Amino acid sequence: MAGHNKWSKIKRKKGALDAKRSKIFSRLIKEINVAVKEGDSGDPDFNPRLRLAISNAKGANMPKDNIERAIKKALDSDGAAIHQPTYEGYAPHGIAVFVECTTDNLNRTIASVRSTFTKKEGSLGTSGSVDYLFDRKGIFTLAIDEYDKAELELALIDGGAEDLDKDEETGEITVTVAFEDFGNMQSKLEELNIEPKSAVLERIPKTDIQVDLDQARQIMNLIDELEDNEDVQNVYHNMAMTDEIEEMLDEKDEE
Fold first, then answer.
1. Which CATH class is domain 133-205?
2. How far apart, in whole angstroms, are the C-alpha atoms of residue 240 and residue 205?
3. pLDDT tens digits for range 128-139
4. Going by fewer Cβ within 10 Å, which terminus of the chain is more open, N or C?
5. In the chain, how many H helices and how many E strands?
């Protein structure tokens, strides 16, 4: 089965950026916080969303103590309600951008997101203005040392897998499922006694837009600033991630 190679490139790049900026733990802690509050429980056995958040935190090598502290803090907190708004708009050169946030202050978040779009020559749109350009998919990353390829593939297809993609460098397997099959795949992996390294819902662009390197730099200036925002959890776009752009971004990271 062919994989979402374009998503894999974005995922690897985004992962490198998050690690460099030390933001990934902050985002995972926010997800644990939301999971505890929405599920009204700090027990992962009775809170599926928390179980998933803990699994993702472990996959990102978050220490057990950090996870336990995040759960305890969420249980003890009587603070402001947590909201998860989304914003849609366009970066320069017609690149669609979808932003997912987690915040305790909606006014602060919309003001900062709007400011970034304006300052970086983009435009913030209305709800639904770019959502239709993306498919919502479940993405599971599996790190399995030994397995029967044919047997595993059949089992994953039974769980709803649309695409399988193995990274030859890391050996990790990326499994893509339809939004509505996310829970089915979770159940199948539990049945197989496989704990995914990560399991997330992503927005995959239906088509990519090709841009040149100068345009890509301008677009990434907007995306980078959004990702630097403490209220922003995820940023999705439909810019084609060519090898040239990947190389340019890697060089930028090393500066």
1. alpha beta
2. 9
3. 999 999 999 999
4. C
5. 9, 8
